Amino acid sequence: MGISYGYIRVSSVDQNEDRQRIAMRSKGVPERCIYMDKQSGKDFERPNYKRMVKKFRRGDLLYVMSIDRLGRSYKEIQRQWQILTKGIGIDICVLDMPLLDTRQGKDLMGTFIADIVLQILSFVAENERANIRRRQAEGIAAAKARGVRFGRPPRALPDNFGEMHQAWRAKKITLEQAARACGLPAGTFYAKSVKFEREEEQDNMLGGVW
């Protein structure tokens, strides 16, 4: 009898893995044999997954809750499945899809059906990943259209920026001295100066219009 393992994956640190963990325990998987990654399923470059695979020996059994918990890349799921079942020689049981249990139906017909189911489910998993990316892009585009700004808010100018900027432009101090006085790198001080001057120029133009 081989060792039973369980693999859990959630896409981000704030997602809850309890349902997957309870399912693994219900199958008698020891806690020490449950491996979890909080990472995207786009590939298999996941530290705990790789650590688990190194433990596998022929005759072991791997439980996963669903095929998309194993991964979301069609080609990579197919490749990993072959490595695990044919290369290493373990069995895999996908809990929410009884047809994907390599302990069952090891005859030609059973293998044929399992291969078809695997191809369909891994295609669905990758397609859902593509849909998630599309929905995210559409959501970001819609938010930008509403004026929502993404990324870190710009750092406020130091209180003495205006004074140092004026002294630098009047050639009373060097760029490096002005930047140092403001606690900024010289390149940052220069970039902020250009932006500051542009905004002042726009304000003056609007003032002249009104």
Report on the architecture of this protein:
- The protein has helices at 18-26, 47-55, 67-70, 74-88, 108-145, 161-169, 175-182, 186-209, and strands at residues 4-10, 34-38, 61-64, 91-94.
- By secondary structure, it is of the alpha/beta class.
- The chain folds into 2 domains: 4-143, Resolvase, N-terminal catalytic domain (Rossmann fold, 3-Layer(aba) Sandwich); 161-209, no CATH class.
- The longest helix is centred in the middle third of the chain and has 38 residues, at 108-145.
- The termini are far apart.
List keywords for this structure.
four-stranded parallel sheet, elongated, 4 strands, 2 domains, alpha/beta, 210 residues, 10% strand
In short:
By secondary structure, the chain is α/β, with parallel strands linked by helices. It contains eight helices and four strands; from the N terminus they run βαβαβααβαααα. α1 (18-26) links the parallel β1 and β2 (34-38).
Largest sheet: 4 strands, parallel
Fourth-tier CATH superfamily name of the largest domain: Resolvase, N-terminal catalytic domain
Please give the domain count.
Answer: 2
Beta strand count? 4
Helices and strands in order:
Elements: E1 4-10, H1 18-26, E2 34-38, H2 47-55, E3 61-64, H3 67-70, H4 74-88, E4 91-94, H5 108-145, H6 161-169, H7 175-182, H8 186-209
Parallel strand pairs: 1-2, 1-3, 3-4
